[in-house]
Design a protein that fits this description.
By secondary structure, the protein is of the alpha+beta class. It has a domain of 164 residues: Rod shape-determining protein MreC, domain 1 (Thrombin, subunit H, Beta Barrel), CATH 2.40.10. The longest helix has 63 residues. Strand 7 and strand 8 form a beta hairpin. It has four helices and twelve strands, in the order ααααββββββββββββ. The strands form two sheets. A six-stranded antiparallel beta barrel has the order 1-2-5-4-3-12. A six-stranded antiparallel beta barrel has the order 6-7-8-11-10-9.
Length: 278
């Protein structure tokens, strides 16, 4: 007993070495069957190996899924950035396309007009659907004065461009001006019918329509007649295109002839304007 206790560890190590050498010797030969010891060891280790493999496989799949998720998220973020950039480019192109007619008209009228003008951009407008009152980014430093006529280039006929009336300046700062347009209900403009030279007065309305009356209730005016500023009263420069007559109404009782017009300017879509300066 004393011998076993004293040399127990050495005995165990020796037995393990003998078993390993036996196993190595047996496995190095071609044989038809395995030993009982190998079978016992295999029976014990196989379930353990199966569990370890399963756990390892699951861990590998788990971290692989995380990696795939991260990659998919990065790709998704990249696609979102690309879509956002494309949408921004589309908006810019649509903005340019939407302003093509305006830019062409402005360029043509700058070549044709005899007036000295300053180009200004609209930076603010009063609430509503119409540009009846708005602010521009040019003022007295640019030569603009109170009462100055505000215009825009319009194509009256195919290839024929003229100044179209927008309104007048009512307040001026160093680098800004406020404009009231002819669609405003408190604004009035004297006109003449270009075909007959009959005159009258127009004013805007809260609905955004422009209507008025002729001084002569027997005046010869028909739908489609073109109206221009007459210059009476000095409120506006003369011979600025206003628009076309869209309706004529005669009243024998009031001895008046009323008209409604379609303005040359689209007062729902204003971007830049031209201000006539001395």
């Amino acid at each position: 007993m004393y011998f076993l206790k004293k040399y127990k560890n050495r005995i165990i190590i020796g037995l393990v070495i003998i078993i390993m050498l036996t196993l190595i010797g047996n496995t190095s030969k071609e044989r038809n069957s395995i030993t009982i010891a190998e079978r016992l060891v295999g029976n014990v280790l196989t379930p353990i190996s199966k569990v370890n493999y399963s756990i390892g496989r699951n861990i590998f799949d788990f971290f692989g899924s995380i990696s795939d998720f991260i990659n998919a998220k990065e790709e998704n973020d990249l696609l979102k950035e690309q879509v956002s950039a494309l949408e921004s480019e589309i908006r810019n192109l649509e903005n340019i396309i939407g302003k093509t007619d305006f830019l062409r008209n402005e360029a043509e009228i700058l070549k044709a007009t005899t007036h000295n003008t300053v180009s200004a951009q609209i930076v603010a407008m009063e609430p509503g659907n119409w540009y009846d009152r708005f602010t521009i980014d040019k003022g007295s430093n640019d030569g603009i004065v109170k009462g100055a006529t505000v215009i825009q280039g319009v194509e009256v006929e195919q290839g024929l461009f003229q100044e179209g009336i927008i309104g007048r300046v009512v307040d001026v700062g160093d680098n800004w001006s406020k404009v009231i347009s002819i669609v405003d209900e408190l604004n009035s403009v004297s006109f003449k019918v270009i075909r007959t030279q009959d005159g009258g007065v127009l004013s805007g309305s809260i609905e955004g329509t422009i209507s008025g009356y002729l001084f002569d209730n027997k005046a010869d005016v028909i739908v489609g007649d073109k109206l221009y500023t007459s210059g009476l009263g000095g409120t506006y420069e003369k011979d600025i295109y206003i628009g076309e007559v869209s309706d004529v109404e005669s009243s024998e009782e009031e001895f008046t002839k009323k008209i409604t017009i379609t303005p040359a300017i689209d007062f729902k879509k204003l971007y830049r304007v031209l201000v006539i300066i001395e």
